[in-house]
Design goal:
heterodimer; A: 112 residues; mainly beta; 7-stranded mixed beta sheet; 4-stranded antiparallel beta sheet; globular; B: 122 residues; 56% strand
Chain lengths: 112, 122
Amino acid sequence: DIVMTQTPLSLSVTPGQPASISCKSSQSLLHSDGKTYLHWCLQKPGQPPQLLIYAVSNRFSGVPDRFSGSGSGTDFTLQISRVEAEDVGLYYCMQSLHLPGTFGGGTKVEIK
Amino acid sequence: QVQLVESGGGVVQPGRSLRLSCAASGFIFSRNVMHWVRQAPGKGLEWVAVISHDGSNQYYADSVKGRFTISRDNSKNTVYLQMNSLRVEDTAVYYCAKRGVEMATIVEIDYWGQGTLVTVSS
């Protein structure tokens, strides 16, 4: 199985400041179709996960543009340009290149 | 809008069985791959099983292979997870989720249900 490693485990951010989360995969997530199957989701407290970013850098419907994703191969980053109170929760990266899909361990984002 | 509503969770003794259901609406169910993903209390996400749009193919995590069975009824817009020989370590919230396509890209999970809690305890 592909192992997904996220850092940091937790992040405490002042509202309005940026935040960055790293995700590394144990093998390249680049498919032969040219796409990279790395996604990001957010689990707000008491809620199910929700998709934020798909295929490295594409924001899902309704996701604010303060969220952005980047990276290639095995190294990926989720950035929040200006953290807001509603952004608190657990952020997970996920690979879907190979079954089983696997998730990173999660990064908890809190507000200072 | 897409809705995925899980049911069937509860408290069950080790070794017993339970069947989860997920009723889908707001999209063409029969065209979509469906997943079950679980989350143990205070832990991260673990993918459990996936089924093709027509039910002809299934794939399981090693941790549940041989014990869990995913199935679907496209006439009822429902996907199921039959869980046999349950273990304490199967205790988790079980989420139903769907695959989507965005901008010609397969997004393995684009929508999640609210989840149903399964507690395996004697």
